Amino acid sequence: MEKVDFVIDRAMIGEKVSSTNYTKQIIDDYCVLDTETTGLSAYYDEIIEIGILRVRGNAIVDQYSQLIQPKYEIDDFITELTGITNEMVAGMPSIMDVKDVILSFIGSDIIVGHNTSFDMRFLNAGINHELSNHYMDTMQFARKLYPNLKHHRLSDMTEYLDLSNNEHRAVADCISTKELYDAEKALMAEKGLKIKDLWAHGSGHRHNIDISFIVPTTEVNTEGFFYGRHVVFTGKLEKMNRKRAMQLVVNLGGVLDNTVNKKTNYLILGNNDYNAILHGEKSSKHKKAEKLRLKGQDIEIIDEFTFYDILKDESAI
Questions:
Q1: Whole-angstrom Cα distance, residue 55 to residue 313?
Q2: Which domain holds residue 93?
Q3: pTM, rounded to two decimals
Q4: Edge-to-edge strand ranges of the sheet holding 230-234
Q5: Which of 96, 118, 239, 309 is least surrounded, with the fewest CB atoms within 10 Å of its CB?
Q6: CA–CA separation, 231 vs 245, rounded Å?
Q7: Is 279 a catalytic residue?
Q8: Same domain, 39 and 129
Q9: How far apart are CA 62 and CA 56, in angstroms?
């Protein structure tokens, strides 16, 4: 992989999730984690609900659920997406108030989630503590086991497998994630598949990569986070030249687009754009992305530093 010189002040932006804690296992004892947040940046946004299930012998034996009062008001878009209002979180504890309860509940369990690294980034930032727990991601299993599906969001998998309804609420999403992991394990057992079979070198469903003006400078990483995903940049990046950032996305198998459209999966905002959001300002690309998300499109809006965390997890920088 191509490397670039890149330095971030960790004290300024908080801890990241260690990619060395990511694991792939078939287990029956674990905790399922899900958070609802005011946005997708662990550096700028906040947790407004956390849900955790404790699973033993493949059965749910306990659960923890808590609404969290953020420092800033919840945006109308988030309320429409999650159903969580400012009135609902008024008087609720802060995330730091329940830190000890959360850490005690999780203990040393492996954490299972859907796109788990995002939830863990938020939790680490919120409680100012980097969890050392290993974690797994049901989305990565889904991409390997259901390559025929265009999208692998939790809502997509819930509908496809007829699981419990995904409601964009923490405990409901935890239950859907647990059922998805059960289905993934069952399918692997049915087909006689082991972990090494799914992640064998070169395995996975290949997508046509439509790159307009930036082509891969290395062998395309078919295991990359952005593989086959449409990516749009907006705003000026603070820490990296945009062309270099685009190059890294393409090397990870991403498809670059100039505008947000019905194919877009990730809108990456320069930090100046994300800071503007805090003052109630949103670009036209940002507003369009939110509208598409509310209509059910598989599109996420992430800030510059979260983008760099993804690259680090992929060992792209």
A1: 27
A2: 10-198
A3: 0.69
A4: 255-256, 230-234, 264-269, 300-303
A5: 96
A6: 11
A7: no
A8: yes
A9: 9
Q: DSSP assignment, residue 19?
A: G
| Residue appearing with tokens 């685009």 | 246
Helix (H, G, I), strand (E, B) or coil at 190: helix
List per-residue pLDDT tens for the chain, 317 residues long.
223 333 333 333 344 555 578 999 999 999 999 999 999 899 899 999 999 999 999 999 999 999 999 999 999 999 999 999 999 999 999 999 999 999 999 999 999 999 999 999 999 999 999 999 999 999 999 999 998 898 899 999 999 999 987 677 899 999 999 999 999 999 999 999 999 888 874 444 433 323 356 888 888 878 788 999 999 998 888 888 888 898 999 989 899 998 999 999 999 998 766 655 555 678 888 889 999 999 999 999 999 999 999 998 887 65
In the numeric block, which tokens belong to residue 267? 């809108």
Q: How many domains does the chain have?
A: 2
Neighbours of 107 (CB within 10 A): 9
| End residue of a domain, out of 145, 175, 198 | 198
68 with 192, same domain: the answer is: yes
Tell me which of 168, 207, 279, 286 is the catalytic residue.
168
